[in-house]
């Protein structure tokens, strides 16, 4: 897909900025002018230097009044987007559109005046010199989806929620809950949880309902959110959260979380991803993974005990250091109050 996008840019089909975004987010086309992806450059993120949004500029200038998420490392939103896709793929959740790290260039991106002048000067001597590539996340476009609140209102008003559809929606919501809890998503809202519904029932054919968890840029924190800004999950307020996890979800997820080979592969892929960043910090990455291991530990306990999502989020936030030979076995479990005892130890 990346090569097709590059060819589209050469043909003059430039990425277009999504105007209502508070950062640089671009809809990209392929060489046949089809909408294929959303590209979010690292240096145009919400608090980054080249953020083209006025909202982002004000947030950056008055950050004392509008502080960023202190538990999230700055300018790692693109890694968080890709990391969520990796977790989704590892656990076979199939709710996050395929996302990867990409390097793209386009005159519609927000470059500095110096970068533009340099490219123009080089083109005077060497033909074909382009603007420098930007690193960022490239997520496949999902068509036909609407915010979940839209479809839930439709289902309620038209009384479309039969038992079969209710159960299917429950399974999909549970997968979103699993994803958000593991990566400790601090920005799940009704607007970035999408549903696609297509009633194609003819005879024995069934409807098609799908869910997409997009905008996962504020996940993978290195510490748990403080009580002052807890960043609660949107789904925790839904009636569904009071219902215990289904047996199907419990069996499906526990089988994967207890697979040492699968989980080792997951953390290896995440490390390779985060190491791509020029500001990669090994100590912060360890904290991110210890927090994630703590989330996984709590999730496993909740699933084994037949708890509900509401009971899951009420569990004490912890950090876990696992056994070097089996990533599914916890060696040390600590809370925020005792985390300092583990820093520098491993």
What is the element layout, followed by pairings?
Elements: H1 2-10, E1 16-17, E2 26-29, E3 35-41, H2 54-61, H3 77-90, E4 99-104, H4 113-125, E5 134-140, E6 146-147, H5 148-157, H6 163-183, E7 193-198, E8 208-213, H7 247-257, H8 260-274, H9 282-304, H10 309-313, E9 319-323, E10 326-334
Antiparallel strand pairs: 1-2, 2-3, 3-5, 4-5, 6-7, 7-8, 9-10
Helix pairs in contact: 3-8, 6-9, 7-9
> Mean pLDDT score, rounded?
89
Structural class by secondary-structure content: alpha+beta
Order of helices and strands: HEEEHHEHEEHHEEHHHHEE
How many domains comprise the coordinates?
2
DSSP, total strands: 10
Report how far apart the termini are.
Answer: 40 Å
**Shape label:** globular
Specify the number of helices.
10
| Physical arrangement of strands within the biggest beta sheet | 1-2-3-5-4
Strand content: 15-25%
Largest sheet, in brief, is: 5 strands, antiparallel
The residue fraction in helices comes out at 25-40%
- Stretches where pLDDT is under 50 for at least 5 consecutive residues are none
Radius of gyration: 22 Å
Pfam families: PI3_PI4_kinase
EC number: 2.7.1.67
Main location: membrane
Catalytic activity: a 1,2-diacyl-sn-glycero-3-phospho-(1D-myo-inositol) + ATP = a 1,2-diacyl-sn-glycero-3-phospho-(1D-myo-inositol 4-phosphate) + ADP + H(+)
């Amino acid at each position: 897909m990346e090569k097709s996008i590059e060819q589209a840019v050469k043909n003059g089909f430039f990425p277009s900025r999504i105007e209502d975004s508070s950062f640089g987010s671009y809809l990209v086309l392929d060489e046949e002018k089809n909408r294929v992806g959303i590209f979010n450059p690292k240096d145009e993120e919400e608090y980054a230097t080249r953020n083209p949004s006025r909202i982002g500029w004000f947030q950056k200038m008055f950050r004392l009044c509008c502080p960023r998420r202190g538990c999230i490392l700055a300018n790692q939103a693109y890694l968080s987007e890709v990391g969520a896709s990796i977790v989704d793929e590892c656990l076979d959740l199939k709710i996050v559109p395929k996302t990867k790290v990409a390097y793209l260039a386009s005159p519609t991106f927000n470059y500095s005046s110096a970068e533009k002048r340099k490219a123009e000067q080089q083109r005077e001597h060497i033909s074909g010199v382009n603007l420098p590539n930007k690193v960022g996340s490239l997520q496949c476009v999902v068509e036909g989806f609407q915010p979940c609140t839209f479809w839930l209102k439709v289902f309620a008003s038209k009384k479309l929620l039969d038992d079969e559809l209710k159960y299917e929606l429950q399974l999909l919501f549970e997968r979103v809950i699993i994803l958000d809890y593991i990566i400790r998503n601090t920005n799940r809202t009704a607007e970035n949880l999408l549903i696609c519904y297509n009633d194609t029932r003819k005879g024995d054919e069934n409807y098609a309902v799908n869910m997409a968890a997009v905008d996962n840029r504020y996940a993978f924190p290195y510490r748990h959110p403080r009580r002052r800004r807890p960043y609660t999950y949107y789904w925790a307020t839904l009636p569904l959260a009071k219902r215990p996890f289904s047996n199907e979800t419990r069996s499906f997820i526990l089988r994967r979380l207890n697979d040492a080979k699968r989980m080792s592969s997951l953390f290896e892929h995440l490390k390779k991803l985060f190491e791509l960043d020029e500001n990669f910090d090994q100590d912060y990455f360890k904290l991110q993974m210890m927090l994630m291991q703590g989330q996984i530990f709590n999730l496993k306990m909740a699933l084994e005990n037949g708890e509900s999502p509401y009971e899951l989020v009420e569990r004490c936030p912890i950090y876990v250091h696992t056994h070097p030979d089996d990533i599914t076995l916890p060696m040390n479990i600590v809370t925020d109050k005792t985390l300092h005892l583990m820093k520098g130890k491993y």
